[in-house]
Design a protein that fits this description.
MepB-like_sf, 11 strands, 6-stranded mixed beta sheet, 3-stranded antiparallel beta sheet, MepB family protein
Length: 164
């Protein structure tokens, strides 16, 4: 039912902390990114698994929806979404970016007042060494929303659960 990585995180981190996933809905068009939506403790979440790309630092993830005409479009600041959770993994390193909708709107990643919006983005977990100035700026603002999932993950889950 759940995509592989979300299922693993749910079992190892969410369930033991008492977090409840409900109203799960898979998005088969973006199966490659484990795209789905659900409520996490009654907060609406858009979930994606980022992918390592061969030529650039960081990981890429798609974050789009279909509009009324059936065309791919960025999410909008007026959409009924509370958080975008993007899981990143590099071998044994695992973490989640948990971005509030308002943050992605302010950064121009989701549309606000018919301006801005993207269909994908690059995320830079702290274990990535970035070399470009733009990537460093992005990594710096994203750091506030990153939660590393460690084997003894109860401490980080306590912090995550307070968001929901």
């Amino acid at each position: 039912m759940y995509p592989h990585q979300l299922h693993k995180i749910k079992q190892l981190y969410y369930d033991p902390s008492g977090a409840v996933i409900s109203q799960f809905e898979a998005n088969p068009e973006s199966k490659e990114y484990e795209a789905c939506s659900f409520l996490l403790n009654n907060k609406k979440v858009i979930y994606r698994q980022a992918k390592i790309t061969p030529t650039k630092t960081g990981q890429f993830v798609t974050i789009w929806k279909r509009n009324a005409a059936g065309i791919t479009a960025p999410f909008d600041s007026e959409d009924a979404i509370d958080f975008f959770i993007i899981t990143v993994q590099d071998n044994e390193l695992l973490g989640q970016f948990i971005f509030p909708r308002k943050v992605l709107s302010a950064k121009g990643i989701i549309t606000h007042n018919n301006k801005g919006g993207k269909r994908g983005m690059r995320v830079y977990p702290p274990w990535n060494t970035v070399t470009s100035k733009q990537a460093l700026v992005t990594q710096n603002w994203q750091a506030a929303y990153f939660y590393e999932l460690l084997p003894e993950g109860t401490t980080v889950m306590d912090r995550i659960i307070t968001l929901f």
